[in-house]
Design brief:
single chain, mainly beta, Jelly Rolls, 2 domains, six-stranded antiparallel beta sheet, globular
Amino acid sequence: MTSSGPATDLDQVVLPAIPPVHLSSGRLSALQVTDRLRRGSQILGRFETSGLAGFKVSAQGRALRVQVSLSTDERSVSGWHEGRTEMSPRPRLIQVLSQGRLRQCVLLRGRKAHARVAFDLSPDEIPDDGLICVEALDITEGDGVRDEVRTAVAGRVAEDGVAGVRLDKVVFEEPPAVDYDPDTLDGARCELYSLISAGGLANANRQGARVLRSGMFVVNPVLKDRFGSSGRITLRLGTKAEAVSMIPATWRRVNSELRWLRHTTRRLLQSAAPSVERVISVRDGDLGEPAQRVRGNITELELSGPATSPLLVILGPCPDAIPTLESGTEHR
């Protein structure tokens, strides 16, 4: 770990970041503490493995809203700083903590995934020296994660999931007095709002259904008075067939066409709805039988909006199809 250390008359005065502020370079003096984070110039830095970044912020007794941007690229591999290049095909499941408390979890899949994390810090969570820490931990690390979660994702997510992940930007600002949100968001907007994390967004402007290729997703605690914070939400889950590749006729293409035909038949018979196997709180464990109902080709999953702990939703097998999140609706 590196830090500014005790001050002396010869030390350069470190000016804290004054909100609202966007921090996107590791060369800024406000980035005071790093642990297993290699500083960058165009980004804050890249994690060697699970680690943290500490920022000196002039909160002046105010609450702060913190927004964290994470992403992956071709260097997001375990041992990237030692010249390794092998990337696991499995998604990463990462805890994001601040001031020692779990705030949200993100699921990142592939080489070009972006995720946003948003949370509020109360004045009593910010120390007098203004040091605010943002920590990224693999789901297998740290205290407080229930064994049910780690057992459920064993073999389904990458080991050392934080390795090589980019810390692109951290924003500190005062929470707005009032937030306005719609009652319903499509699947892509649910991820953009950080209510859910299903692999990360390659395009922040994408709209419509969110494909759930990992067979699972996270439902996160959200900001006060924002979409999903009122206590009860309904997530509408569907399925889609894999597009038939335009490659020359081979057994692979024939199999793709057969899967597409089988899925189309199920949709015509209104039997293509996916199923939810389990809903597990990262902090509290298995929540019991999921409250779900099937309406045609759609499964409606009823959840209480998580207040303090992310929820991991595990989907059942979807033969010949890929599950999707069609939309989320908040019940005010």
